[in-house]
Structure formats: structure tokens, C-alpha cells
Amino acid sequence: MADQRGRPRVLFLCTGNSCRSQMAEGWARSLLDSDIDACSAGVDPNKLNTLAVKVMDEAGIDISAHESKAIDACEPDTIDLVVTVCGHADETCPTFPGKTTIVHRPFDDPPKLAADAKSEDEALPIYRRVRDEIKSFVEGLPALLREHGLQQ
To answer: Any idea where the Phosphotyrosine protein phosphatase I domain is (predicted)?
Structure first.
């Protein structure tokens, strides 16, 4: 169900909507704003991860005003494609109305991988790696949308 500008609506879904899904939304809005209408949400919303904000800012994308939100904030009845970016979101993904396509593309969890980091400087490379992996995925979204018949 495309938005008013004819763009397919894409939801990036994670557990807390604090890190990976927020980075994906940031990349999508930055790289593909004319092609898709992006939103992110969590099955159990938490607070925005400050290191995710920092590494996105390093890449020139400001997500500092983003807020962690539940699925309802993204108008689930209008979503064309849901991308679950973690295993928990994939396992607990709700049923969406209509012909919503759901794709699972898991990314490592930076907060979990960096839990034993002794400093921010030690944690940041993990966040940067995942940020860059998410960017690569988002760059391929137009092809994925065409593959599922959601975009010309």
C-alpha cells in the first residue's frame, strides 16, 4: 500500500527499536527517500542507543531525534514490506493485514557484542561494522522490492 507519493512503505523491525532498525531507517531515509517510505519499530520498544546515534552521525546521518516506537506508530495497515533485523523480531513478528511481505535479514547486535568492551573506543568498531552492513542491505532494497513486485 504505497504512500501518497507512490513509494512502497517499508518497516524495519527489531526487538527494542534502539539500534539496528534505527540505523536501517536512517540509511533508508538518507539513501532512498525518493524510492521508499521508511519507518522503524520494535516489538518491545526501548530507548535509542547513543552509540548507534554516534556512528550514524559519523556517516553523516543524524538519527538523534528518532524515538524508539511500537509497531502501531508506523501504521501497520499501510506497510508493504517488513524487514526483521533480529531473530527475536522474526520469531515474534505479528501478522500484518493484506499482502505485506516479510523478509528476515538478521544483523549482529552491537550492544550485545560490545557488552564486554572496556571503553567506547573499543565498542565503536562493532557498531561501525554493523552500520556498514546495514547500509549495504539498504542499498539493495530497490532490487528486493522489485523481486517481490512491490516496486517498478
So the answer is: 8-144
